[in-house]
Design goal:
13 strands
Length: about 120
């Protein structure tokens, strides 16, 4: 049974930083790509970043240069370092196991999701 448990969300002022963590169990973590998504109030869940098993990374344009995804295979953990946070980054952030980039350049969601962690950016 695959479980993904996020943590690290909270309330932060605009311009501040947060680091999210996602601990995975029930899968061979090191061979899986891992991803982060977010869902703002009243909006659909959208892709934020992914990191492949070989550490290749891919970001949504809205977070490039501000967010960094990383992984620690020894700890079965994927991180999302978020810097220079903006009001529009306010959302519930979800961890996703085994996302992929299709040959058309689209993002295919993995089937396993965490429960989400709330990030609120205030002015």
């Amino acid at each position: 049974q695959v479980q993904l448990v996020e943590s690290g969300g909270g309330l932060v002022q605009a311009g501040g930083s947060l680091r999210l963590s996602c601990v995975a169990s029930g899968l061979i973590f090191s061979i899986n790509a891992m991803g982060w998504y977010r869902q703002a109030p009243g909006q659909q869940r959208v892709f934020v970043a992914l990191i492949a098993s070989g550490a290749y990374t891919h970001y949504a344009d809205s977070v490039k240069g501000r967010f960094t995804i990383s992984r620690d295979n020894a700890k079965n953990t994927v991180y999302l370092q978020m810097n220079s946070l903006k009001l529009e980054d306010t959302a519930v952030y979800y961890c996703n196991a085994d996302p992929a980039i299709t040959t058309q350049g689209n993002i295919r969601d993995g089937i396993y999701w965490g429960q989400g962690t709330q990030v609120t950016v205030s002015s």
